[in-house]
Write a structure and sequence with these properties.
60% of the residues lie in helices and 4% in strands. With 102 residues, it is mainly alpha-helical.
């Protein structure tokens, strides 16, 4: 086996458009970095005010656009969308209903 084998659990950085790539300097950005940046801005906007129930807030804010984008990328196929998400179709159906996307 080559010494360049990729960790199967590792996620490749997302490729970004040319304008953003030039601004970033390397042409790649990690989803983790985008989330960290959004959370940093959120905490800055709180300006010292107390934060509660952050986990369910973040899950609600991330899950709906994720479901919408994956459905779009799957051409509307719930089977493909569920496969892309790594969940079963029943779970996808439930989440779509929760977010009123069904």
């Amino acid at each position: 086996m080559s010494g360049h084998a990729r960790d199967p659990g590792a996620v490749a950085p997302l490729q970004v458009d040319a304008a953003l790539a030039a601004a970033m300097g390397n042409g790649q950005v990690r989803l983790e970095d985008c989330v960290s940046d959004a959370l940093r801005r959120y905490f800055d906007a709180l300006d010292g005010h107390e934060c509660r129930d952050l986990f369910p807030l973040v899950m609600r804010e991330v899950e709906k656009p994720l479901l919408t984008m994956v459905l779009d990328r799957s051409g509307g196929s719930r089977t493909k969308a569920a496969q892309m998400l790594g969940i079963n179709r029943g779970t996808l159906r439930k989440k779509l209903q929760q977010h009123r996307l069904d």
